[in-house]
Design goal:
Elements lengths: L2 H9 L11 E5 L2 E4 L4 E4 L2 H4 L8 H13 L12 H12 L3 E5 L2 H20 L7 E5 L8 H4 L5 H4 L9 E4 L4 H7 L4 E6 L15 H12 L2 E5 L23 E4 L11 E5 L1 H4 L15 H16 L2 H18 L5 E7 L2 E6 L6 H10 L2 E2 L1 E3 L3 E4 L7 H19 L5 H4 L4
The protein binds pyridoxal-5'-phosphate.
Pyridoxal-5'-phosphate binds next to α5.
Amino acid sequence: MNPTIERENRYSAHNYHPLPVVLVRGEAAYVWDDAGKRYLDMMSAYSAVSHGHAHPRLVGVLAEQAARLGIASRAFHSDRLAPFLERACELTGQESALPMNTGAEAVETAMKAARKWAYDVKGVPAGRAEIIAARGNFHGRTIAIVGMSSDPGYREGFGPFPPGLAVIPYGDARALEAAIQPHTAAFLVEPIQGEGGIVVPPPGYLAACAEICRRHRVLLICDEIQTGLGRTGKLLAAEHDSVKPDGLVLGKALGGGLLPVSLFLARREVMDVFEPGNHGSTFGGNPLAAAVGLEALNVIVDERLVERSAESGRYFMTALQRLDSPLIVEVRGKGLFIGIEIDPARASARTVCERLMDRGLLSKETHKTVVRLAPPLAIGREQLDWAIEQIRATLAELEEPRERPAATGGIR
Ligand SMILES: *Cc1c(COP(=O)(O)O)cnc(C)c1O
């Protein structure tokens, strides 16, 4: 085994099961391993690297700001925060923003805002506010968040969980309407479920949810940590349904592939439940993160990354749907957010990813049966054509009589 991997296994917690490759360098859509082999990155660190690796403008801003003022804390103002929040509000159509670092922190912020809004504004009796989430969701790893998860793997052994959390089927607006009670504060939902397996709800689902939420005075909060900032061919995936949510959570690509940067954005009426002292983060909104976050937003606009995601996504999706393989159950997604569902009786998604890796294409399975394809948004036509050929060849290879089914894993 690679000595670096062996060493990591000895000292690291084993909370991940990475593909056996040690990455040492990245540039645009490519990464290189410790033996100098090049790979096309179709994983983009779960969409954190939508801008591509080591984007020169982002690296430039990072270095410049790091040398000037890195961390100031919110005990003082910095000259970097206002321009970042202003641009984020402008682009998303929201009125205000609260900066955090990781996605989970911004989701927690949204949940706190929703609960306090329910008490202060909606008039829900103290201690009764409820947040509804959708089955198959992924919103992060804190105890409150995994308390909303329907995945035993995320939950088991971590309880007890906070009360006031409910889970309903995803993609079914009537289930939302049935679940809403007088003390419901918010419906928290991903416009397309990412970790759940690139699950695209029926057309009009989010618009119907928005209408139901409005009618019942419930906040619609969209977690666009993974779907946001161009990934699905719109700046925000909610735009596919012409929905502007009451609250919006961004992360991942907001850090330009360099830093953890997240935001909770909302209308003033919602955001104003926060007062000095009732919420915060030492690193949230620090000058380094704010400078990189602003540049990340500007690069998306200047390089037309949203339009490119839409165009490349259409091309890639069409080509993948034309692949005639008995291993494929379904190809689905929007923009450059694509999942190939693999028939588990024929191969595990993990095996497909391992074979793709051998061919120089990096991806990762999600939920055992789905191969996720989410490259940096500026990926070129030639790179996509090359990827399609590797996927075609890999699936053809795996069509052969099932070898060593026990060793391929993931088949239950
Ligand atoms: C990744 C992700 C999160 C959690 O973000 P972290 O930065 O890992 O805490 C939350 N929601 C969605 C939809 C995500 O994809």
